[in-house]
Fold:
Amino acid sequence: MAEVASLKAEARWRQIPKHAQQAILANVWCTSCRKGYPVSDFVLTEDGDVVVIRAHCTVCRGEVARVIEDESM
Ligand SMILES: [Zn+2]
Structure:
């Protein structure tokens, strides 16, 4: 399970349907690979009003981040 850095971010993440969570985690843009890849070891953080997932690319192990917009909540 994810490490939780922010309870508020986790609460918002939990509002997302499971299938949508899976879809998000299965395709996070990696700037090193220049492609969307599945991620692992994700952490939920907040940046102002948005939730940001910080994780590691499963291909190059580099750090990746994805902002979760309100419309995907
Ligand atoms: Zn990568």
User: Anything to note?
Assistant: The pocket of zinc ion is lined by residues 30, 32-33, 37, 57, 59-60, 62 (CB under 6 Å).
